[in-house]
Each structure stands twice: as C-alpha cells, then as structure tokens.
Amino acid sequence: MESPTIVQRIQKSKTLQILVLAAIGTIFTLILQVGGVLDSVELKTLDWRFLEASHPEEADTNIVLIAIDQNSLDAFQNRNVIWPWPREIYGVALDYFRAAGARSVAFDILLDRKDFDRRESDGAFTDSVFAEAIKNSGNVLLVTYATKRLKEDEPGSIILDRHLGSGGFSSLAVPRVDRAVAPLRQFQEAARILAVTNFESDPDGISRRVPLVYQFKKKFIPYFGLADYMVDKNIPISQLSDVVKTIPVSNDGNFLIYWYGKGGTDGVFRYYPFATVVTSALNFQSGAVPPLPPSLFKNKVIIVGGTAPGLWDMRATPFTSLEAYPGMEIHATMLSNLLNDHYLRDMPYWVTSSLIVILALLGAIVFFRIRRLSAAVVTFLVILAFYIGLTFLVFYNEKLWLPMLTPSMAFISTFAFSAFYSYSTEGRQRRELRRAFNRYLSPAVVSQIVEHSGALELGGNTVEGTVYFSDIKDFTNIAESMQPKELVAYLNEYFSLASDLILKRDAMLDKYIGDAIMAIFGAPIPKPDHANLACLTALEIQRSLGAFYKKKSAQTPRFTTRIGLNSGKMIVGNIGSTQRLDYTAIGDTVNLASRLEGVNKYFGTRIIISENVYRLAKDAIEARELDLIRVKGKNVPIRIYELVGEHGTLNENTREFMSLFQEGLQYYRSQKFDQAAHQFESLLNVNPEDGPCTTYVERSKLLAMQKLPENWDGVFTLTTK
Questions:
Q1: CB count in 10 Å sphere of residue 148
Q2: Annotated domain spans of the chain
Q3: CA distances from 264 to 73, 181, 297 (A)
Q4: From CA 52, how far away is CA 60, in angstroms rounded?
Q5: Which tens digit of pLDDT belongs to each residue from 121-145?
Q6: What pLDDT shows up at residue 468?
Q7: I need a labelling partner for 683 at 20 to 30 A (CA). Which of 253, 335, 538, 571 fits?
Q8: Which of 456, 356, 463 is nearest to 407 (CA)?
Q9: 3-state percent helix, strand, coil for the chain, nearest multiple of 5
Q10: Could you please report the per-residue DSSP string of 299-365?
C-alpha cells in the first residue's frame, strides 16, 4: 500500500490543517507588514486610541503657552504695530516673565533677521536690547529650522559651537542636516540653548513621533521638547548624549509623543494671549494692576508661539479633527512627556511577530475546532473584540502601543483562509457525503454525519446498534393476484409509510430487498438508545399501518408486516467491489435479525426481538418471552421475545394473559407437556388468534407422545431460515 501524500495527510488531520493555515495566515500578514501595506491603518488605530482613551488630566499644568493669536495681531495693529513685531515687544514680555519667576521661556519663533525698522537713535529697543533681556533671564530657549542644503549658494546661518553637543546615538534615528535658519549671533550668545523646531510627521502628514536630536555637520542639536527639558533640569549641552540614553525611543529610533487630548485654547494646556501678557507687563512696570498677575507665571515653563492663521504654524496631530493644533503645543506635549515620564512605548518586533503567530493559530483553531459555523463566527467576533479591547486597556493603563491591526489581520485572514479551504475541500466532501447518505437517512442525521465527518470511517468500522428487518406476510400470493404496476403503487405506499417512521427516529434506511426493509439504529451516528428507538419504531409502524388501511377501501390489499430486531456489534461502511460500493451493515447481528423476522411465521407474531434487544430496552417496552431457539446455522441458542407494546400501555387483562402464558411456558420447560397444552388451550379460549399459544399447544401435544433424552434443554431448533 502506498503511503499517503502530504496533501492527503493534511486533509485527514485537523491539527495539520490548523498548523498549515495558521502558517499561511502568518506569512500573509508578515508580507503585508514588511511591505508597509498596514502601516497607515495601524497608525490610524493609534490615533483612535488617543481620541478615545487619552488622559487630559495628566498634562503638566506648569507648562503655559503664550499665543501670538489673531486678537494679539489685531491689538498691536490698532496701535500701528504690524507683524513682524519689533523685538522690544518680546523683551517686555521676557522681562515680565523673569520678574514673575518663570522657570524657563522658549520662543517658537525664528529670529534669524535683524530688526531693520528700529534704530538706536529712535530711542526704541533694538535687537541688542532684546539680546540683553535674553541674557538677563538666563533660561531662554531659541529655535532653528534645519534642512539639507539644496544649492551651493545656500549656506544658511551659523550655529555657535556652544549650542552643539557631541556623542554617539547609534540607537536613534538622527536626521542629518547641513543648513540651518538660526537666530542672530547676539541672540545665540545670550540664549541658554538652541533647539530644532522642524515639524516632523509620519507619511500621512500627522505628527506622532519626532527625533530627539539632529546631526548638524559633525555635531548634534536637540529637538525642541528635549532642549526645553534640559533647560528645566539644568542639563548642559555637553551632557546631551547622557540624557538621551535615559529616554525610551520607538523601534525606529524616534520619540513617540503621548498625546493628552485636543489642542487650542480649550485643550489640555493653559493659553494666554501675547497681547494681554504685554499689557500686563506694562501695567506692572507702571504700578497698575496687570490683567495677568505675575503669580500666574511663577515656576512655570513658558512657550511663546504663533496660533494666528496667517502665521502658518498649525499642525496635524491625532486631535486635529477636534481642534487646530499649534506647533508650539506639540513641543509642549513632548516636554510634558519628558518631565513626567509619560512615555508611550511600542512593542519590540518579536512581540508583534509572536502576536501574529498566536492569533493566526487561534483563528484556525476557532474555525476547525468549533463545529457549528454560527458558534465559530460568534467566538471569532468575541476574540477579535477582546483583543481590540486589550489594546485599548494596555494603552489606557500602561501607555503601551500594542499593535491592533497586524495581529487582528492575522486572526481575520487565517479564519478567512480556513473558511475558504473548508469550502473548497471539506465543503466538497460534505456535499458528497450528503448526496451519498440522503437516500439512507433523515436530513437531521445527514447533517450530523456532515458535521462529524471526521469521525466517520467510510471504509467500514465496528459499531454497536440494532438491526431492523421486516417483510410482508404472504407477499408472494398477493403479488400473483395483482398487476405489476398496481402492485408497485401499493408497495410504494407501504414503503413510504414505514420508511418515514424509520427515518423519523434517525435510523439508517439500509436497503429494500423485494418486499423487505433493512434498517440500522445507532449507525452511522452512534445512538446509546438504539434498542429503544428500534422497538418504538416497530410498534409505531404496526399501529400506523393499521390506521392507514382502515381509511382505505375494501379493495385495497392489506399488507401485514413482520419484524425482527437484534442488537449487537456489526461492521458498517462502504462494502462491495471496486466497481460498486454499498453503504451497509454486515455481521452475525444482521443475520440473526433477518432470522428473527422469519421466526414470526412459526409463532404467528408481528414483532420478535432478541434477548439483547430486550435487555437494552426492557424499561421502555412490554414484551413476553416466547422461546429458547437455535436458528439455522447457529449452535448457541438464543432467547426470544414478542414485542407487545410500549412500557405502561398494557391493561390488566393483557397483563394477566401474559402471566398465564409464562406459567404455561414453565410447564413446557419442565416437560409437563399435558399441563402446558391445557394451559395454552385455556388461553386460546380467551384469545383464539394468539399465535404463540397455538404453536405451543401443537408442540406440547407432539412432545408428550415422544420419549425425550435425559439432557433435553427445551431449545427448539429451526430447520428453515
């Protein structure tokens, strides 16, 4: 015999199917992941989590945003001060913050050009005066915009070495730039630190992660949020490398921003208009009551930036759909993350890959181990919802970015691949099974076989069941008196009635043999109550035939059916030749059932059951013992019973009749044949049509005239089938 191929092994093993399809789902998902197909959607799921599961209350309340908003622009324009404002205005605000005791002040404004409209002769503040204010404060952050040089004639600004750090950043994503738009030299000399203010975004234009440092030529400049953190913690630029090592970064080496909520004046950070700050500063200098008292800025980290539409500093974030997000608030969010250890961590690649494998495996298990498709779908949806809920839970409580889409895609795709495979292979096999068994079994049993096809051994296996055999009394004589077409019509009526009742109790209608019916209870789907079902079916067929023929005309032939039942082990499966197979049952159990059907002729009964059937079904039926017989071809005698009715359905007269019959049987077995004959004759006076009594009267009288051997055992041997 040839060994099965790999494909055949997979088709026969659910475990192999699960493993193979899980591998396919895993590979498919990993291909999508490596190809970047899922990246944009995964990022959207992260945005969704920010929108639905953020913590606005965690935003650092010590960070204050001073907005150069439209109202501030309008207020200064009404005083004939147009944008860009003279630097003296920033100096006024800066002096006020210093007097109030601010921790630091960061200007998210490019100060790369001289204020040519103001001269020292005018008596107004000049750039040098503003530089002096920066120096006096000692805690001011200024920004530079860094790019790559596109042309040789674009040298850009000079950045002083005092604002450049050194050190290795092998684990970071470090953008390299060689051109900067930096503050004036005098501002750089006065500032505490210089920071890059570039807007960094993912491919979809939304800001979610930023580099911690930029490489400018051979030195390094910190990003705005990190630089402001260093000012607040009094960390010199010489320690840039050391401080970066303490900050968690994502797999791609960038800093993941943990967003607290929507931006703008109604968002998570406190906003004050720049014009109101300047008014407060002037009032403070003149001794008047300032609208914004200095206490508001004591120990605050202040960021000054533009929010007016014309300043073009509104950026896209996960919360842009709720409120416009000023660029300076992105820096404020990063600073709050650093100050409070609010780090959003993504999962290492091996964790994501493990989740993909686990959920792919789970998708296949759900499909193949849960038999009912509806239950499998419900379980699938529950697991999917659980995993999505888990990603929300760990995000909300632990600030962990557990990938939502890629493992879910592995789960979904594997479930879908499993369904497709099942439909294309098992579905075809199930359709073939359904076609094969539709003529044998009820639709309910066919459905069970289809659902449990893995447990069905089509080549033949041993089962425990009850065999039903029946034929029609005097069918040969009836057939000779009728035309074939007419006979077939009446026979089909009989077969339909009996077959429907057999199928109703989930038996297998094995075959029709002329006028005979063979059926199996308890196969191919096991039924522990197979004997009960067979007995109840036999009784119902007898009742139904009687009721059926009562409604027919007198000319309709009456078919009287005789039934034999036997329980035991048998071989059930596809049996036959290579050219023709028949799904049937064979074995001694089947043969004996056929013999018992024939024994009805001898006793004049309708239903005879074996001792095995009686033992299994005695609590559900009423039966009387008939005899101990040895059928043709068998040496071992068997006890047989007449099936009389369902349990509890006999009246007192019938019970008395059966009890007296049992007494007669005891006389007979004790070789008291005269007493036995007398007992059975007395019973015939009560019921002249009782076949067993007639049989025992004749047999008792015959044996009374014979000399029996001393070892006579009372077994009656049948010489015919």
A1: 10
A2: 6-37+347-434, 48-345, 442-649, 651-721
A3: 17, 27, 19
A4: 20
A5: 443 447 888 999 999 999 999 999 9
A6: 96
A7: 538
A8: 356
A9: 50, 20, 35
A10: T-EEEEEE-SGGG--EE--TTTTTS-EEHHHHHHHHHHHHHHT---EEPPHHHHHHHHHHHHHHHHH
Radius of gyration of the chain (CA): 48
Phi-psi region of 415 (alpha: psi -120 to 50; beta: other; left: phi over 0): alpha
pLDDT computed for residue 5 by the predictor = 65
Intervals of the chain under pLDDT 50: 1, 119-125, 454-458
Q: Three-state DSSP class for 426? A: helix
In sequence order, what are the beta bridge partners of 478?
none
Task: With beta carbons less than 8 A apart as the criterion, state whether 104 and 139 touch.
Answer: yes
3-state secondary structure at position 66: strand
- Scanning the structure block, which residue is given the tokens 């009032």? 283
**674 to 610, 666, 703: CA distances (angstroms):** 28, 12, 9
Distance between CA atoms of residues 396 and 404, nearest Å: 14
Quote the pLDDT of residue 479: 83
Residue 44 to residue 9: CA distance in whole angstroms: 42
CATH architecture of 442-649: 2-Layer Sandwich (3.30)
Nearest to 638 by CA among 716, 703, 695, 563: 716
Amino acid, single-letter form, for residue 614: Y
Beta-bridge partner residues of 219: 216
3-state SS class at 141: strand
Provide the β-strand partners of residue 181: 145
Contact 131, 186 (CB under 8 A): yes
Place of tokens 């004050």: 272
- Residue-wise pLDDT for 229-238, tens only, equals 999 999 999 9
Q: What CA–CA distance (Å, rounded) separates 644 from 607? A: 8
d(CA 429, CA 29): 29
Q: Can you tell me the distance from the alpha carbon of 29 to that of 408, in angstroms, rounded to the nearest whole number? A: 9
Among 671, 584, 673, 602, which Cα is nearest to 642's? 602
Separation CA 564–CA 566 (nearest Å):
7
pLDDT at 106: 97
- pTM of structure: 0.64
Q: Which tokens sit at 101?
A: 């005791």
Contact between residue 272 and residue 64 where contact means Cβ atoms under 8 Å apart: yes
